[in-house]
Known about the structure:
The chain is an alpha/beta fold and 356 residues long. Helices cover 37% and strands 13% of the residues. The site of zinc ion (ZN) has 7 residues, from helix 6.
Amino acid sequence: MKIKITTTSLILLVFLSCQNKQVPKSIKTTTIEAPEIEKWMWLHGTADTEAATLKAQFKTLAKNGLTGVLIGGDNESMFRAAKAEGLQAHIWLWTLNRGDEYIMKNHADWYSINRNGESCFDNPPYVSYYRWLCPTNKEVRSFLKDEIRKLSQKDYIDGIHLDYVRYCDVILPVALWEKYNLIQNEELPEFDYCYCETCRAAFQKESSNDPLKLADPSADTSWINFRYQQVTSLVNELAAIAHKNEKPISAAVFPTPPIAKKLVRQDWISWNLDRIFPMVYHAFYEKEISWIEDATREGVNKLEGRIPILSGIYMPDIENELVLKEAIDGALKGGATGISLFGKLTSEQWKMVKGE
Ligand SMILES: [Zn+2]
């Protein structure tokens, strides 16, 4: 529950109490609002910057009850068009998975190296767009910090949304194993990062062990924690920059704290963010729709109310509006303060989001 006291009503209150008169019924001194369910959507940047098209697009999204949009890339006209319709507009960034031309051309040494000694620069794992930067590398950090600083200072960007802020999947969500013809009951060396010189030296300083010489790196708690800490400290440094510029910052994360740690080394419970968007994509984990509630609750309980959770819903796996209702209800029952949608919705599904 939020209690809002406006400046005008405060002034009135003081004035009226000096007059020793009762506050007229028509003037509200306090407004008690029901908690609002936040509804967000990930939105790919578009090359189409035709003002009328953008206006129509965002008008429809606002009419459909969205709170805000997470826009892929720094496309000023999209941000301004969204804001003009009353939507919050945050920039959706690929943080550590970066195939940028500039980085590829100039900084091959920024890329993560797996336990076999192969770099994401020329040996991307699973898919060609998996180009993971090393979070320990100081130059990578300063590049990312500069980027967040510049974006946070733009007046048309309301906030920052970090995606791909993690290591490469050392284990893929189970539903993808077949697609890549893999069995990942253990951490395979070709998907296990990062063993670059910087990481090896930094870990050796902490533990006097070379991670490459560990008998079973997947069982070494210090090595596991070292990597959680690399991402956590990066996120918290980026958060401090956004906050300094008075911009909220959030992240898309793997669905529950244990899954996020095990699959991608994200310890998101330790991140200083303003919102967390766990991607509770049930079908990726071969779960029923009811799992959305359980997964959401797990994160909410671990965070102990410190940070609002908005459950991410993957629309390609939502068959119809009734399933969407189950997903949204489940997220809210699990303690989410809202939802975020990925993918396209039918008009019937939009009606459900709007609450019609
Ligand atoms: Zn490294």
